Amino acid sequence: MGDVVALDDLLKEDPLVLWRVSLSSRAETPLHVASLAGHVDFVRKIMELVPSFAQEPNKDGFAPIHLATAAGHLQVVRELLNKGDSDLFLLKDKARRTPLHHAAMKGMIDIINELLSNCPHQKGMEQVTSNGETVLHLAVKNSQFEAFKVLFEISKKLEDHEERVNAKDKEGKTVFEIANANATNHVQDENLLPVIATMIAAATFQAGLNPPSSIWEKGVHLDNKCIIPTLNYRHAGDFFGLKSCPASRFYGFMLCNTFAFAASVVLIPFRRDPRMAPLLTMISLFFLLFTYLTSLGTTAPNVFFFALVCANEAEEPTYREMQVQKGGTMHFMVPVLTLDDMKCSIASLRDIVWV
């Protein structure tokens, strides 16, 4: 947990402990772990003792500053920049991404400003990844539009702004081409959601007004007393009362159907909300599925519950004594399942398959 006191005690016992870690082949150094966890005091202590750790990549090719940037630990990034080498902001991972690239991908505006305040803007902005991506490409590809605005304003003040904006990645796309493609996909998704919501709302509305005959018939009395006794595994063969208890199947169907209808109706005004739209879509589809399963449970054969019912009706098994002689005699009581123990006769099997 970044215990500096414990580190001091460990160094008193073995002053070379940190250097031994540095000799291990491409392992995670304590600075990697502390940077990722955001332990500023621990990072400061290690940088005082072994500043070269800041340049060390881990097995995935990430230096501590890459991890701190991606995790959004501004104070750790600031400490690494202050105590590390002057070119720390240009360190590249296996994909040739600098800390500024990682900050652009994550939309870390504070870290973007911190990185650019410690390096020449021109040098930081002109770096490209192994896929030919600039920081502007990465911000747009990851939908970090606030970060893109900050980087774009900085780019406008620098030389070669037009070339940087019109630069193409390895796929031959400029920043604005990527932005237009993302906007088109976003609009298509927004246009599709109302269609899905309307279809679910129409289906559930119709089912609510006119339930299937297997769910509701005029003149059928709903006896609520049969609901609770059927809600256990002994009634699995009866789909937990959906067949034998009219109240169970009616209330189960109407409850799921109502939730699906309500979620689909609420989805329409929230279709542009990036958080609510996916959630409401999943809720409406989830309850629509259970509406279907409830209806299916009133008509489908109970083949799937055959094993459960047979196991439930089985009596206590017969036990037979077994002897094992190996350096002595040992006695075991072994359960033996016989035909007499099973009550799944042909007649009961017929009742289980179709009630």
TrEMBL record:
Report domain PGG positions. Answer: 189-269
Write out the ranges of the repeats annotated as ANK: 60-84, 131-163
**Which residue stretches, if any, does this entry annotate as coiled coil?**
none
Matches recorded under SMART domains:
ANK
Instruction: Fetch the InterPro entries from UniProt.
Output: Ankyrin_rpt, Ankyrin_rpt-contain_sf, PGG_dom
* Keyword Transferase on entry: no
The alphabetized UniProt keywords are: ANK repeat, Membrane, Transmembrane, Transmembrane helix
What's one Pfam family here?
Answer: PGG
Origin superkingdom: Eukaryota
Transmembrane parts of this sequence: 250-270, 277-295
What is the name listed in the Swiss-Prot or TrEMBL entry for this protein? PGG domain-containing protein
Origin species, per record, is: Rubroshorea leprosula
State the organism's lineage: Eukaryota, Viridiplantae, Streptophyta, Embryophyta, Tracheophyta
